[in-house]
Amino acid sequence: MEKDKHLGLRIDSETHEKLKSLAEYEGRSINGEVLYLIRQAIARHEQEKGTLERT
Q1: C-alpha dihedral over 27, 32, 34, 37, to 10 degrees?
Q2: DSSP one-letter code for 10
Q3: Which of 16, 32, 52, 53 falls 20 to 30 Å from 43 in CA-CA distance?
Q4: Residue 2 pLDDT > 90
Q5: Confidence at residue 27, expressed as pLDDT on a 0 to 100 scale
């Protein structure tokens, strides 16, 4: 089984505060919200342009 990967991310204060508010509103942690948003972007991309390959 593959281990989860760690991604360091720099984010400005205003975006962080808005992300925190969004996550709280959606009932998720900030990490959970970021993962949700990334997965949504990937799904949208794949729907429009085809499946992305794992490398």
Answers
A1: -70
A2: -
A3: 16
A4: no
A5: 98
- Token pair for 35: 């993962």
Tell me which H or E stretch contains 22. helix 13-26
Q: Residue 53: what pLDDT?
A: 93
Residue 1 has pLDDT above 90, yes or no: no
Per the structure, the count of domains in the chain is 1
* Strands (DSSP E) found in the chain: none
Question: Does residue 4 fall inside a structural domain?
Answer: no
Query: For residue 1, is it within any domain?
Result: no
Determine, yes or no, domain membership for 2.
no
